[in-house]
Design a protein that fits this description.
alpha/beta, single chain, 5 strands, 5-stranded mixed sheet
Length: 170
């Protein structure tokens, strides 16, 4: 688990998914941002690349399983739909848990954190592309990205200790 972020140069945020996880990489010194969607094997290759380069990095994994939800009690939801959602949520959680095991086995510093509080303008309070661009500033020209990628970048940004105040206009 991460105790001290002062000796870390790069923070890798991961929003786990059973097919392609969102990955956000933030260099704490330069404030440079990178993002990709990666399969589990691609994600492990990314982590290995940073490790082999000797980069002082830390991994922050969004642990949706740390928060309890009541998605199965939505009125009008069929048992089949609830089972499908439950299966998908469980697979995503297992991906995150396996990532922690991989970080342990690779000797990488990591932390598992609950999803960040949702207070942005997007659906369900999620951060929009424009809002994230304003947070990371105009010097980081972000590509169009999925919600998983935006969440991963936001996670890496926050755990890098960088400010969430807007640095440019929407």
């Amino acid at each position: 688990m991460i105790v001290d972020m002062t000796n870390i140069d790069v923070v890798i945020g991961i929003d786990p998914d059973n097919e392609r996880s969102g990955v956000g990489v933030v260099n704490k010194r330069t404030m440079a941002v990178q993002t990709v969607k990666a399969t589990f094997s691609e994600l492990l290759a990314i982590l290995k690349q940073y490790q082999e380069a000797g980069t002082r990095c830390a991994v922050v994994i969004e642990g949706g399983w740390l928060r309890t939800t009541n998605w199965h009690t939505v009125p009008g939801m069929t048992a089949r739909k609830a089972a499908a959602i439950g299966r998908s949520v469980g697979m995503n959680h297992q991906t995150g848990i396996l990532l922690t095991e991989m970080c342990d086995s690779m000797g990488l510093r990591y932390d598992v954190v609950p999803p960040l509080r949702k207070y942005w303008r997007g659906a369900d309070g999620k951060i929009t592309q424009d809002e994230l661009q304003c947070v990371v500033g105009d010097e980081n020209k972000l590509p169009r990205m999925s919600q998983d990628q935006r969440d991963a970048v936001l996670l890496a940004w926050v755990y890098s200790g960088l400010s969430l105040t807007f640095r440019s206009r929407v």
